[in-house]
Amino acid sequence: MSIKFRNYNPNEDYIRVSNFLKEIFDDYFKVRNWTQPRWEYMHHHPYIKNFDRKKIGIWEDNGEIVAVVHPEHKMGTVYFQIAPGYENLSEKMIKYAIENLYRTGNNKKILYVYTNQHQKTLIKNVKKYGFQKKEKYSESMSIFEMPEKFNISIPEEFELISLADENKLKKIEKVLWRGFNHGKIPEYNIEDRKFMQSAPNFRKDLNIVIKNSKGDYVSYSGIFYDEKNQYSYVEPVATDPDYRRMGLGKTAVLECIRRTKKMGAKYAYVGTSMQFYLSFGFNPIYKIHAWKYNK
């Protein structure tokens, strides 16, 4: 091995890390690292502007990426992507995160790192450096196995379309803002929505909205498809509070998944274990634990 460390180059490494994540995906039910769509979603979300991507750390073996440590949306929240066989790099990655990826509070470094149950060497080293598990901030991953047939229905007063049929950015902003319970709607930032739709694997025909009789978007489901590994990743999903408990969100999600099945997807993932998803076929496969460093 000839392991070398370097910092992330935003102009060159986005695609290289994307390909790295696709290459090291090897088990539908034991996902050790991020899926490539989550990496893509992170880089095409407006929050990416909240930190300097050059601080992302990369380890290479003979020029090939074997490990990446990085924030998501803000400093102090850190994830580890490690190729099989390179788990011993995790201690160096933790040291790098403590020294470079923290945020401050009360004159202390604050760092939340995330591990899943399959990253045993990483977990051992996280404990070694004094991180404390914080269940409150833990995440989950759930999987959906494709059925032979999808039973999708919608009340007559609503219409299901894709963004390939109609792509009204202000309407998308409104349903997502209200659907995520953000409160009073600010001025719409259409440029942010255009930026999110510029992701390389964003497909309008896979993003589903449900319209009411007035033409308002009242439910939205997005999805990304990894053609190499034949799975899809659901993100984001939101339903206007005035239209919940009508089955609209479920219908939007299932239609997204149905479309990716036609493209070859064998499974779909979502980064949560909310009862909403479990109610129509998703099953949790593991938790992603948060560990806090505050020194």
Automatic annotation (TrEMBL):
This is GNAT family N-acetyltransferase. GO terms for molecular function: acyltransferase activity, transferring groups other than amino-acyl groups. Gene3D superfamilies: 3.40.630.30. It comes from Candidatus Mcinerneyibacterium aminivorans. Pfam families: Acetyltransf_1. Residues 156-295 form the N-acetyltransferase domain.
